[in-house]
Amino acid sequence: MAALQKSIDKRNALINATIELVNNDGFHATPMSKIAKMACVSPATIYLYFENKQDLVNKTYIEVKTSYTAYAFATYNETMSVEEGFEVIWKRIADFKLKESANAMFLAQCDNTPMIDEESRQEGIKHLQPLLDLWARGKKEGIIKPLSDYMLYA
């Protein structure tokens, strides 16, 4: 049990170091050696958990996106009106960005650069399904203009 926890702790340290270094230095200025040093693990240890830097960043993105969307939709209910649902989700998103600023900054960097591969980006979008469903309902009811989901999210 202790070995499993130690493994989880190392992986979490690598994820947290990746977020901090990408936020501060950018993706390209964040070598694996620097991530390992900040996480207090040997560079070889990274490869026990991740295939390469791209895999590390993609998996970090998905973990942060999962946490973000879980928070955003925690108090949302599909039976809410479009207006109420939108307000609840948007306030939770704003709250997340205030409380989890490092994670929010990391997601913003990932969403605005090509550093995340398409498969991981699609995985991240799946986590937004309740919001996409709400927008579809809003468009159907004529409350939301028929814009693309990408435009609405921006």
Q: Can you tell me about this structure?
A:
The chain contains 9 helices and no strands. Helix content is 74%, strand content 0%. The model has no long low-confidence stretch (mean pLDDT 92). The chain has a single domain (2-153), classed as Orthogonal Bundle (Tetracycline Repressor, domain 2). It is an all-alpha fold and 154 residues long. Helix 5 (82-99) crosses helix 6 (101-111).
What's the SSE blueprint?
Blueprint: H1 2-25, H2 32-39, H3 43-49, H4 53-72, H5 82-99, H6 101-111, H7 118-126, H8 129-140, H9 149-153
Helix pairs in contact: 1-2, 1-4, 1-6, 2-3, 4-5, 4-6, 4-7, 5-6, 5-8
> End-to-end distance, in Å?
44 Å
Helix proportion of residues, in percent?
over 70%
Write down the CATH topology. Answer: Tetracycline Repressor, domain 2
Structural class category: mainly alpha
| Count of DSSP-assigned helices | 9
How many structural domains are formed by the residues?
1
Counted beta strands = 0
Unreliable parts: none
Supply the CATH class: Mainly Alpha
Which outline best applies?
elongated
The biggest sheet, with number of strands, parallel, antiparallel or mixed sense and barrel status, is: none
Primary descriptors:
single chain; 154 residues; mainly alpha; Tetracycline Repressor, domain 2; 9 helices; 0% strand; elongated
